[in-house]
Write a structure and sequence with these properties.
about 170 residues, alpha+beta, seven-stranded antiparallel sheet, 4 helices, globular
Length: about 170
């Protein structure tokens, strides 16, 4: 059972905004080169995104389908990984003070991934989740900081600056 969590120093709404944008999947999912919606309106039930995994010169195209979505708090996905099979990935978003706790829970569903999933493979999945949550945190926190800078700029635009008065 691969369960990992991370405190992200922004609001749950900011994290959900990133999760709810299927075109940004490749920004935070480790091993994914690019992504784009292919069915429905992500993250509505049964919507899907297609993504590429690049291993040197080899490019593999896979899909991830939304199996359950509780807007703002839970996103359950079924990731298709070709011959490796499918996996269930649940991403839970919880308020944690002024920040957000994100919990990722991944389990194989079908195919070779389920056969080889054991205690020896678990540390590799944990490393992947650690990297994925670090990338998600960076994306969310960078977006939030950019929004704060824009807000400060808007607020400062109407305020006279010191030394900028008339003589």
């Amino acid at each position: 059972m691969a369960v990992r969590h991370r405190l992200i120093r922004t609001s749950p709404e900011a994290v959900w905004t990133v999760l709810a944008d299927g075109s940004r999947y490749a920004e935070w999912v480790v091993g994914t080169a690019e992504s784009h919606p292919v069915r429905g309106h992500w993250p509505q039930l049964d919507s899907a995104i297609e993504y590429q995994v690049r291993l040197g010169p080899v490019r593999l195209t896979n899909q991830t389908i939304v199996r359950n979505c509780e807007e703002g708090s839970l996103l359950e996905l079924e990731a298709h990984a070709g011959v490796l099979g499918t996996a269930r990935i649940a991403i839970e978003v919880r308020p944690w003070g002024e920040h957000c706790l994100v919990i990722v829970d991944e389990h194989p569903l079908q195919g070779a991934g389920g056969v080889v999933h054991n205690m020896a493979v678990e540390p590799l999945i944990q490393l992947r989740h650690r990297a994925m949550l670090a990338r998600l945190a960076k994306v969310c926190e960078t977006d939030a900081e950019g929004g704060r800078r824009e807000e400060r700029a808007r607020q400062g635009a109407g305020t006279p600056q010191p030394g900028g008065g008339h003589a």
